[in-house]
Amino acid sequence: MVGLLTAMLVLLSQGDAAGEATSTDPLCTRWITETRVLEEPELVKHTVAPKERVSQIAIRYGVTREHIVELNKLKHSRVSLRKGRTIKVEATRIPPPREEITYTVQDGEDWFAVAIKHRVASNDLRSWNWRTRGKPLTAGQEISVWIDPGRPRTVNCKRGPAPPPLEFRDDATSYGRPQYGRLKNGIRLPESPLWTRRPTGLNVLWASSHTIENLEKAFRTLRVDVGYEGEIMIGSISRQRGGRFPPHKSHRTGLDIDIRLPLVPGVPPNTYPRPDAVDWPALWELIEALVDTGEVSMIFFDWRLQKHLYAAAREEGVTEDELRPILHWPRREHKWEAIVRHSHGHKGHIHVRFLCGVNEARCGPSRAHTLLRRGWIEPHPSGKESREGATARREQWRKEGRYRELSDEDGDEDEGE
Length: 417
Ligand SMILES: [Zn+2]
Known about the structure:
By secondary structure, the protein is of the alpha+beta class. It has helices at 2-12, 26-34, 54-61, 65-71, 111-118, 122-128, 209-225, 280-292, 306-315, 320-323, 367-373, 387-399, 403-410, and strands at residues 36-47, 86-94, 99-104, 142-147, 173-175, 182-184, 187-188, 196-197, 206-207, 233-236, 256-260, 296-300, 340-341, 349-354.
């Protein structure tokens, strides 16, 4: 009985790793039950696994890269570490160690598929199996995989508590286009446990009712259903009456929102979000929750960085087909077909643009226009034209590349930050 009580107390004292694991994901359960969260930092010795990087070691023990560099007198944080080397860390948590397993390749699996299955990087997977010289895999082949049950799991492990509902007016409306319009009766983004408002941005966090309603919906999914507890900062929306908001080209009508990328637990909140420090599964879940509202027009995010999102989504079980209308990566062409698309300068944050609300008659480009352009609704067949005829016309229109003219006219593509 006493043993059980102690075990429960230990579980309770685990802070953000505590909570009932409701997931069927074994890595998730392992991370929660086997990670020891320390009240005081503790000096531990870490044995470097093959190809392990300083940033990865920092993440597993909840410390910064700089801390490891300093403590071990390394030249810089990108120095490559020999496997088996011992590294000192003043850890804030102690997760289970990496494990080498032998995996038998299944029919139809390539390097990427095996990497996704074990939540490792495919480059790393190739180098652990350097004897294969990166040749295509064949079914039945045995390869070695260093799984990492110590990689923090922050999503889909448990359900989160329901935050109190937000109360706000319903008469804040967008007028005109994001690049030219303004905001009427704007509402300042309410304070909420759902998100963090950028402290220096309070005078540029004015939004339309439709925007706040759907932002709340998405964040509620992220907090409750996905169980994500990390901080997510909302950077900029619009000024109180909308209008010009340099250096942004858009952000004028209360429906463009800049959201900083979520960071893995333990990385200080003001760190610039380098790829190693970004919590990609959390960002993917946020994007999925936003898209699931059905009210997002597009999301701007650097094309190269989208590959991390792609891997995170696939690791969560999303298929290639399901991803195609959402992520532009890995394609280079057909940018307009995906909701998440490249735009210069969007590396440390995503820029979410909501659709105009159903009651926002003067908001532009109109809701119907945007839905039609995305191919989310069928164009109205006019006169004798059949529904099939309309679809064929749209295909033809795409093939001829006429979308380019329309895009320029819309100003979608020359989106400034
Ligand atoms: Zn922006």
